[in-house]
Write a structure and sequence with these properties.
alpha+beta; single chain; four-stranded antiparallel sheet; 2 domains; elongated; Alpha-Beta Plaits
Length: about 270
Amino acid sequence: MEKTVFQIPKMDCPSEENLIRLKLDGIAEIKKLDFDIPKRQLTVYHDGRLHDIERSIADLNLGRGRVSTEQSEETQFEEPAKQRKLLWTVLAINFGFFAIEMATGLISGSMGLVADSLDMLADSFVYGISLLAVGATLSRKQRIATLAGYFQIALAFIGFVEVVRRFMGVEVMPDFATMIVVSVLALVANGFCLYLLQKSKSNEAHMQASAIFTSNDVIINLGVIAAGLLVYLFGSNRPDLTVGTIVFVVVLRGALRILKLGKRGDG
């Protein structure tokens, strides 16, 4: 049994973790994947095929690569059913807040909330792809990933068009109170995820507790709250549109990663 450590600088949230899991899913020689998101490290326990593992991770363009390979005495690994239950729970929370933020964003006129909802949807896609792909053929995995990626790109493009229209047209003032309240609730939801992850006894939880506070979702939530306060202070929709634009870029980046996974998932 070999133990290989990879340093992955761009693995900064649960989305990257699940993309890596899906990418490596077809390599039967892999016995265990141990993620440490705060340290941006992945430890792979495997019986051979190091070149294929290294190439598959490199295909995702998440940075750096293999740090070390050594022999390991570990021979028995378990993949607890509670990990799948945890993944379903986090998927449900992300998708639920996608619906909440999308609805309240449209009603309140906040592009920041709409964009944040799409970021939640992006994470939901990645979790859903990982779950749906279990036991599936490679071609099915690629089709699922490609469909999700193109759908995300379409949503991001629509968002960009709306931001430009609002920048150039009559100023539409978003409801700052709704922006702040809903974003605070999203932070509470992330806090609940943190509680669930801390409660888990597994070392291989799909979302580690400390990853929640370093994830893009939390930063975006804080950004929308700040934008709401600036809308209130300056009486302008520009802070909301600016945050919305930034988040749409994040969503687009995630979509392109998923598309790459769909086109090059044969690692």
